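BACKBONE GEOMETRY TOKENS
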Amino acid sequence: MREHGYEKDVIQQALETCGPDLQRCIDYCLVPAESGHASEHAIATEENWAAHVIQGLGYDETTTTEALELCEFSFSAAVRLLLLGNDQAKAAQLGVNHFRRHTTNRVYGIPEQTLSSDPVRAAYEDRARQDLDMRVRAVDLGQYAGGTTAACFWLSLAAGLAHTRWEVPGQALPALPEMAALLATIRETPLSDLDHRTTTVSPRTSPVGQAAFLLRRYMCHGPDAVLLRADMLNMLFPAFAALDSQSDRRQLQQYKAWVKKLASKEYADELVLLATAHTLQVEIVCVPFTPEAANAPWAISTYRPQGGQLLVHRRIMLGNNDVHYSWLAITDSKETNTEKNTHPMQL
């Protein structure tokens, strides 16, 4: 904003009034205080601004209000709560450190074999059957795609898109010209050939690996990455900045550095799922693995596009343990061809 010539005190007033919502700050700066029109400007209170940003992420007014009230109108706490499935116990147990990957230079490894062990897979399948009336098979596609690592979400997403017969949106066609053919091939591939335990094909070069690499590149790589578009910045950055209200390391430069890591070596998290659902116009359902220390099963989360409406219902089922994702292939379900009447962000 300074680069565009706005006065320092005007910028400060805009930030105090509008928070880290770039477009609202710019709109505020366009109305000089001495013009007499400032009183006509939509100057929101902190609570109204928080509700505006959260609803911009796709949550409805009722859920937004309930989350803010539960968190005593702490925007930071409310965002964390909603991203973690509106589950207070889960949010309390994971705390702020769950999102520490956003602001560190280091990429933390994970015990992949532990996070995708047989008991974890069985837990996903049991939970889907008991809570969602779905018969699924947990398929772990590993974490390598193309020349990238930490790709488990993108691999699972590619497999899920293939089996929902998802079609590339028009605006994404120039960046994903090969996607339709790759997804058709994945759809015909036996599940055993997709699971990294049983396949004999390297996921780095397989059709699912290629599709995952392209999806990740589209969302995260380079200056044209979806996560760096102005509309996506306006949607995600306020939440990114607020996830740890005590930190001064959640500025725009840290956001951009995080996106750069996501393109090749960092694991996706709830913010990425939210952005992906919005961009690809799909519903992503996440069945969490609940640790033994938890007092009750963690809530199943659902991420949908802004507004929660889908012209064609495409549901991607995932299992999640920490930042490791597995694809839950639907094998038999009463829900296969119907849509549950659920809140856009939680089942």
Notes: The chain has 14 helices and five strands. Strands lie at 134-139, 283-288, 301-303, 315-321, 324-333.
